[in-house]
């Protein structure tokens, strides 16, 4: 056996060896059950270390190409029923079609309408360092369960950050979650029953709509304006239906990018008091804040607001760390549901985040993100204006613009986007009932890409 290895290539030697072994098996047409050279033989013939040879074999075992027999060696595996994944999946209207933005099958497309920052905007080296520091610590952080309310060190850091934006809380009011999505799920499970009625914004967060439908909760729609929920419509809904909860974004609403005006926030709290309404304030984009901002939680004197946020957008979607703030009694109930449904959160992920918050790395990171997003927001707004696109409302921060090209239906926008290698988020996804819409959510972090710019200009030229 002769596998060519090139130590000057950037590909790790162990991967070269594994790929070479696989090619050799194919070229020799080795049948299942054929024994491969021993580790000792592989080390001698290929001039690699023992650990390199072992890892190459182990990789092929994990991929199903080889079978390891203890004390005997490695053998070509039987691969019955192992049909390869289709390289071009047929995207339909099922789960895969609805979650296409999250797929790793078409990485070549520009996800112009996605809800997260590009990977190269993240602080990968700092996160890797924090991971190494936690890994060198006690075994509890690597192998243990997290406490019901969340890691104390992290909750202390969260409390400090909340104080900086005017949200004063006690430690027993803070519950960590697996991102904001779990926080919403815990609230729906705990506070609502099938048949209950809530108010949601239109347009709004599609996964919230899916969650409420899953639990059999009836949704009433309130239009989102440039200053927040439409107060006249909301007042009428509250009088007629007496809903249990209102879900809203205060800052940089998803998908419109709009923020609450002070007078709207004050009136919202007045209406909540008049109609015994609880408000879920989703502040997931809190750390993108530039300048003064209005939050319901800072104005709430009757404890009607439940606050939730996350570090997924600013730090890492993979770490999946979020939190919520409620009165101590409700927080205790939510912690019980959290333990029943998931046995806590990742202690390791929470310890990594606590390290980043405590060292000041996170603070510096979000400062850079704010500046970068502000630059991209300004340039994207200029481009849209120059090419004739209509903007719902000019955001004062965050990463979303809600836009459309007047008179052009989504089907035509999608066709043009595909021609330019762009993947869109249709406006219908942000409608509680999934109704057709020609509006699009644009993530400004991706809008400087030449494919996005070509798409914006092509739509304008085709419509002129």
UniProtKB/TrEMBL annotation:
Q: For the HTH gntR-type domain, which residue ranges apply?
A: 11-79
Entry annotated with the keyword Transcription regulation: yes
Q: Which CDD domains match?
A: AAT_like, WHTH_GntR
Report the Pfam families cross-referenced here: Aminotran_1_2 (PF00155), GntR (PF00392)
**InterPro entries linked to this entry:** Aminotransferase_I/II_large (IPR004839), HTH_trans_reg/aminotransferase (IPR051446), PyrdxlP-dep_Trfase (IPR015424), PyrdxlP-dep_Trfase_major (IPR015421), PyrdxlP-dep_Trfase_small (IPR015422), Tscrpt_reg_HTH_GntR (IPR000524), WH-like_DNA-bd_sf (IPR036388), WH_DNA-bd_sf (IPR036390)
Source domain of life = Bacteria
Keywords on record: DNA-binding, Pyridoxal phosphate, Transcription, Transcription regulation
Family affiliation: In the C-terminal section; belongs to the class-I pyridoxal-phosphate-dependent aminotransferase family.
Supply the name of the protein.
GntR family transcriptional regulator
Organism (species):
Pseudomonas putida (Arthrobacter siderocapsulatus)
Q: What is the lineage of its organism?
A: Bacteria, Pseudomonadati, Pseudomonadota, Gammaproteobacteria, Pseudomonadales
């Amino acid at each position: 056996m002769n596998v060519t290895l090139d130590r000057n290539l950037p590909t790790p030697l162990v991967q070269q060896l594994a790929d070479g072994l696989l090619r050799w098996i194919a070229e020799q047409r080795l049948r299942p059950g054929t024994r491969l050279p021993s580790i000792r033989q592989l080390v001698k013939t290929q001039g690699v270390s023992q650990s390199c040879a072992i890892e190459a074999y182990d990789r092929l075992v994990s991929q199903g190409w080889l079978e390891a027999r203890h004390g005997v060696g490695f053998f070509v595996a039987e691969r019955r029923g192992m049909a390869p994944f289709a390289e071009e999946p047929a995207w339909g209207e099922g789960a895969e079609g609805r979650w296409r933005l999250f797929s790793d099958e078409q990485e070549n497309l520009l996800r112009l309408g996605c809800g997260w920052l590009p990977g190269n905007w993240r602080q990968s080296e700092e996160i890797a360092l924090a991971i190494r520091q936690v890994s060198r610590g006690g075994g509890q952080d690597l192998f243990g369960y997290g406490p019901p309310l969340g890691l104390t060190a992290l909750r202390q850091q969260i409390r400090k950050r909340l104080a900086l934006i005017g949200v004063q809380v006690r430690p027993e009011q803070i519950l960590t979650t697996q991102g904001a999505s779990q926080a919403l799920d815990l609230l729906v499970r705990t506070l609502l029953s099938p048949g209950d009625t809530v108010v949601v914004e239109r347009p709004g967060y599609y996964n919230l709509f899916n969650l409420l439908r899953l639990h059999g909760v009836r949704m009433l729609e309130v239009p989102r304006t440039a200053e927040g929920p439409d107060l006249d419509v909301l007042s009428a809904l509250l009088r007629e239906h007496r809903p249990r909860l209102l879900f809203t974004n205060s800052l940089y609403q998803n998908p419109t990018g709009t923020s609450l005006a002070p007078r709207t926030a004050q009136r919202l709290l007045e209406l909540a008091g008049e109609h015994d309404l609880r408000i879920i304030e989703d502040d997931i984009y809190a750390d993108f804040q530039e300048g003064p901002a209005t939050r319901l939680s800072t104005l709430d004197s009757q404890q009607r607001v439940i606050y939730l946020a996350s570090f997924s957008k600013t730090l890492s979607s993979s770490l999946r760390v979020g939190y919520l703030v409620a009165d101590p009694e409700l927080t205790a109930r939510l912690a019980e549901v959290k333990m029943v449904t998931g046995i806590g959160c990742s202690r390791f992920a929470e310890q990594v985040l606590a390290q980043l918050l405590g060292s000041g790395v996170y603070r510096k990171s979000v400062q850079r993100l704010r500046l970068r997003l502000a630059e991209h927001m300004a340039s994207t707004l200029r481009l849209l204006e120059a090419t004739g696109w209509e903007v719902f409302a000019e955001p004062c921060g965050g990463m979303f613009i809600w836009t459309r090209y007047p008179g052009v239906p989504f089907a035509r926008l999608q066709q043009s986007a595909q021609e330019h290698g762009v993947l869109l988020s249709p406006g219908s996804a942000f409608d509680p009932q999934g109704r057709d819409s020609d509006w699009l959510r644009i993530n400004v972090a991706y809008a400087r890409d030449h494919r996005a710019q070509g798409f914006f200009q092509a739509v304008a030229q085709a419509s002129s």
